[in-house]
Write a structure and sequence with these properties.
Helix content: 55-70%
Structural class: mainly alpha
Radius of gyration: 33 Å
Number of strands: 2
Number of helices: 7
Strand order of the largest sheet: 1-2
Strand content: 5-15%
Length: 163
């Protein structure tokens, strides 16, 4: 399990930068930067800081015996495994994280569909408006003479469009 890959996925999901997530977790902008830094040998992490970071990124930090993924074990449910793989989630992804990612994908697709349909409606409205304007251009303008002008109050000519 690559901790940094899990962090990258969580950062993308939450929309937080390394610096912002680090600040929220420990008040210091360098937590994730230090975790990414290459050091000789194995990487070491401060467990308290990682626990706070997990909370900020809506992750679970668990240390204990392996447990089933909310009742589903990898390889046990082929539909779940295909969905998890389609969402590019790690094999040990919990059911909750798979559900959350699936909902995000559905919401993105739904948003795209709505925007596409609204664009089509907007195009139809533009077309209808243009047709209305074109029809108005075909109308004939006929002058109306002001009776007062004929009576000597001054020359005034008004126009009314007749269909």
């Amino acid at each position: 399990m690559d901790v940094l890959a899990i962090l990258d996925d969580a950062l993308r999901r939450t929309g937080l930068s390394d610096t912002a997530a680090s600040r929220l977790a420990v008040g210091n902008p360098s937590l994730i930067k230090n975790m990414r830094a290459q050091s000789s040998g194995r990487k070491r992490y401060n467990i308290d800081a990682v626990a706070k970071l997990a909370e900020v990124l809506d992750l679970e930090l668990y240390l204990g015996p392996k447990r089933p993924m909310d009742g589903i074990t990898a390889g046990e449910d082929p539909v779940f495994d295909r969905l998890r793989d389609a969402l590019n989630l790690p094999e040990n992804a919990s059911t909750a994280s798979v559900e959350r990612s699936a909902l995000e994908a559905i919401n993105a697709t739904t948003e795209h569909t709505i925007v596409t349909r609204l664009d089509r409606i907007d195009e139809r409205l533009d077309y209808a408006l243009q047709k209305t304007i074109d029809q108005e251009d075909d109308r004939v303008a006929m002058p109306l003479y002001d009776i007062r002008a004929a009576a000597g109050d001054g020359a005034a000519v008004e126009f009314e469009q007749v269909d």
